[in-house]
Specification:
mainly alpha, 16 helices, globular
């Protein structure tokens, strides 16, 4: 995911604990079966990939359910018990829960902001993505502003929205979206999230993913491949041979796959732990080390206008793609 966050800086003073979770929020808890590929209707013919990706889904549920029942400041204690590989997914779930409660209770982003000021500050990208999941459950006009999301990183909420459409809707929803008329401008970021969901929907199978992307109109494929690269390197679940095959199948969209991989590298770096599968994924897909790819996102952000517009966000991606092409 993206580079240097614009979230509030760390403070030497203790962050405000944020509002306590209402008692009725317990009714929104998600069951562990939600992450089961058999329940979701995803392919179960790749057991190792399935195991890895289901674990990520369960970590998301852990973060979601924790944030439903505790104030943001108390979430950290529960999530630090998780393996560092899984914490980002848990904070993505926490971001969804906080945004959902803010939307339903009309608290204008108080929980999301408290999460970003406190335990979620190192997972700022994932929290913004998680907020987008909430928009799929409780659409809210002007949500990016009302939830207090960062002007630039707030576009990641649309990534989360797109991911939720694919993850919850499965292959049927993906096929339907491929036939829809061209999306509005913000739909480009939703397609990035939809592409990210394909890593789960197709159980990290490079050929099935490539065939699914090819079913979309040409003008959407670059955004889908960006999401695929992000998921491949952030989530893992593929062998070296499969990563090489994914790079091959991306064809003329390779630089977009590489851009997504760079986003993943920076999100992992920001979280304080770059796992082996991210190092390996970035090297196989991009041809550089993960730290170098993460640096591209920071360099690109410094070259933006800084207005937080959709144009700025898309320019960010384009600059990173340019860095990838220049590295070949």
């Amino acid at each position: 995911m993206p580079g240097k966050p614009s979230a509030p800086p760390r403070s030497r003073t203790r962050a405000r604990p944020g509002p306590a979770a209402p008692r009725w929020a317990r009714r929104l808890r998600l069951r562990e079966e939600t992450a089961d590929f058999a329940v979701r209707g995803f392919p179960c013919d790749r057991p190792e990939s399935r195991r890895v990706l289901e674990d990520h889904g369960r970590s998301f549920l852990t973060g979601f359910n924790a944030a439903l029942t505790a104030a943001p400041a108390a979430v950290q204690e529960r999530l630090t018990a998780l393996d560092p590989v899984e914490r980002g997914f848990a904070y993505e779930g926490a971001g969804m829960a906080c945004a959902l409660l803010d939307t339903v209770a009309l608290t204008r982003g108080r929980r999301v902001r408290a999460l970003l000021r406190g335990p979620g500050r190192d997972y700022v990208h994932l929290v913004h993505v998680g907020a987008g999941w909430a928009l799929a459950k409780a659409p809210l006009p002007g949500a990016r502003r009302l939830l207090g999301l960062d002007p630039l990183l707030g576009w990641l909420a649309l990534d989360g929205l797109g991911f939720s459409h694919g993850y919850f809707g499965g292959r049927t929803a993906v096929a339907r979206l491929a036939r829809k008329s061209p999306p509005r401008p913000g739909g480009t970021v939703r397609h990035q999230g939809l592409g990210r969901s394909l890593w789960f929907v197709e159980a990290a199978d490079p050929d099935r993913i490539a065939e699914t992307v090819a079913a979309f109109p040409e003008d959407r494929r670059s955004h889908l491949w960006s999401g695929v690269g992000l998921a491949a390197c952030y989530a893992g679940g593929a062998t070296d041979t499969e990563l090489d095959r994914l790079r091959e199948r991306s064809g003329p969209y390779w630089q977009h796959l590489a851009q997504g991989a760079a986003f993943a590298a920076e999100a992992r770096r920001r979280g304080g732990h770059i796992p082996e599968h991210t190092h390996r994924g970035v090297l196989r897909l991009v041809g550089v080390d993960a730290v170098t790819a993460a640096g591209w996102t920071l360099d690109a952000e410094r070259r933006l206008r800084g207005d937080g517009s959709l144009g700025d966000f898309l320019a960010w991606r384009a600059l990173i793609s340019g860095s990838a092409l220049a590295s070949r």
